[in-house]
Model the fold of this input.
Amino acid sequence: MRLTAEEEAMLSGVRGPAVQRAMDGLVQLGRAFGAAEMVPIGYAHVHAGMALYLHDVELMEELADLGARMAVPASVNIANADTVNWAQTGAPEKLARLQQRAATAQHRLGASCSFTCTPYWAGHWPTWNTHMTSIESTVTIFCNSVLGARSNRDGFFAVYAAIAGRYPKFGYHLDENRRGTHRVHVSASPCVTSDWSALGYFVGRQVGSGVPVFEGPAFSRRPSLDDLDALGAALATSGGVALFIVPGVTPPFTTVADAFGGTLPPVTIDVGEREISQIYAELCNAPDEQFDLVHLGCPHASFEEMKLYAEMLADKKIARGVELWITTSRAVRTMASEAGIVSVLEASGAKIISDTCPISCHFARTVSPDPALEVSPPRLRSVVLDSAKQAKYVRDMIQCATLFTGTSEAVETALSGRFVPRRIHAVS
Done:
């Protein structure tokens, strides 16, 4: 792999041991994937330092002690605890205190402690053709698809790239990989965000790590940013999708033919109402009356979604014995608080939680937390939710059943104490 003189100096240690370590890891990554050179990056979404693992936090502290600093604007991914209001989630205080240590390390590194899977709602908005890096699949696919930035699914290498300001040029950093591989005709009419989530979940399983190109009457109404967010998050969950294309909506292609480089593939994946309904049914595997938690905000809720929740919950009360969690970023929570939205939601009995979510907090049963944290995950019967992504990971990580429904139906469930299945809504 060709390195510039500056990059060679970084690799040799001229810029210090932290940058040298970062460059060494990135060079190994680039060689493994056959990258010809590095590219400068303009943004990074990095690892939080997960408090369930003491050594994970210590690694971030070690990098800070070595003098590492973020070379580009960097946001921080979701964490294991709400570091301010951990008590309302039932998290052990030791876990929250350790997560606060990780936050201190991130401040020293120069990162923005957003602790969210939707940093774009917090103002991190990389523009078209910006080379970037991300540890979070939802961020990768949103920035690649909706914003036209360039990112792979990077894991911890996102931290190294942020420190070095470089990334090996392979994968979705190359023009030739940013073309469609599968043509998807959507005859269904997704009209609420959870429908877009179900659509993405179905298609992700069909295309694997390919690049789906969407067309059909479903797109006669331009999807909202929240719809596109839900679509991408689900595509990245059931498959390894890092880029999708909606000609005329996502950059840069205006036609389906353009998205495939002028040659249309012969096979089209058809998605109708039957396939959408199939996903809802598949992700409902619990008795309707047996749920412990209703969760909204996966991916972390936008300001527009917070407004919607407040409209649904205004002057109403959550049913006795029901917990409603709404997860969002610190930034959106602050904006919603200033707008009077948080007070409306909290008056209903909802819990507004930042920094974490059910699958990332102490609920997880598929991790081995540090014994000193004294974490005992509660045994949940089922979780009601409006996100196919969250349903998948609740099953895998919390190891409990799910009840997947629409957003308005999830709110009705929290208000009534009885599960309300998804209704097929008319397109407005």
Summary: The longest strand covers residues 293-301. The radius of gyration is 21 Å.
